[in-house]
Amino acid sequence: MVTETKGTVLINNAQELLNFSKGEEDLMESQVKGIKEAGATVVVTGGKVADMALHYANKYKLMVVRLNSKWDLRRLCKTVGAVALPRITAPTPDEMGHCDNVYLTEVGDTQVVVFKHEKEDGAISTVVIRGSTDNLMDDIERAVDDGVNTFKVLVRDKRLVPGGGATEIELAKQITSYGESCPGLEQYSIKKFADAFEALPRALAENSGVKGNELISKLYAAHHEGNKNTGFDIEGEGPAVKDMLKAGILEPYLVKHWGIRMATNAAITVLRVDQIIMAKPAGGPKPPEGKKNFDEDD
């Protein structure tokens, strides 16, 4: 909505100047009037807005909002169901978006323009996070991000597995028993693969100030008794264990699946490397041999 363009115009008299300015104003008015007659009440632009365009927007009671970010502009188009137009033209009904309410408000010391949908089944939602300190804001942001990602995972696959290291210990037990049935040297690699699953419950124990070996022993003992859902009780005294399913401590199946798969692929990639390229010092002139103290006089 900027009318300033680079060019050279030769004007011979005052009448030509008036006609030139009048033609520019008429063109801008016709464009803004066409947008209004199409049924639009709010115009969102990603570029600069000229004073003349604001004048005619106020005349035809159009609200003009400027967004500097193209990402925000695309996100807003997706939210209201609009199509971004490359130039100032009257939009068609299919190109216009719809929003229940658009208003200016303040969040703290910042003025924001709110595009509000009264319906709850919107495609995009905005969460405003406020806190007293930056650390608190970071914690809340991580919690919201984890919750949204967990919901996305559960939409793809709603299966859940016990948390607190219960799944890892059960996998380690099953893989170890399978390794004992394999002949030859393969059983050693299978058992080492099973030992790798102990890393997560061991990390939980060490972060809680509990000895990892004691917790691993208790978890193995509980799982050998048939308690497959037994995991680390972080709220208990010492290396305590409890049923994760009854406690409601569950994790998405896809998180475990992709975590194990990616870690396994990384380990296989490292093991497949049969040659290590050593980095050598860069070339250049070598220091002269012999006398080391060059600054001393002879």
Summarize the structure.
The protein has 298 residues and is mainly α. It has helices at 14-37, 51-59, 70-80, 134-156, 166-180, 186-196, 199-207, 212-224, 244-247, 253-272, and strands spanning 42-45, 63-66, 101-107, 110-116, 160-162, 230-232, 241-243, 250-252.
Structural commentary:
The protein starts with 13 loop residues before the first helix and ends in a 26-residue tail after the last helix. The mean pLDDT is 83. The chain has helices at residues 14-37, 51-59, 70-80, 134-156, 166-180, 186-196, 199-207, 212-224, 244-247, 253-272; strands at 42-45, 63-66, 101-107, 110-116, 160-162, 230-232, 241-243, 250-252. The chain is elongated. It folds into two domains: 14-116, GroEL (3-Layer(bba) Sandwich); 160-272, GroEL-like equatorial domain (GROEL, domain 1). By secondary structure, the chain is mostly helical. The strands form four sheets. The protein has a two-stranded parallel sheet.
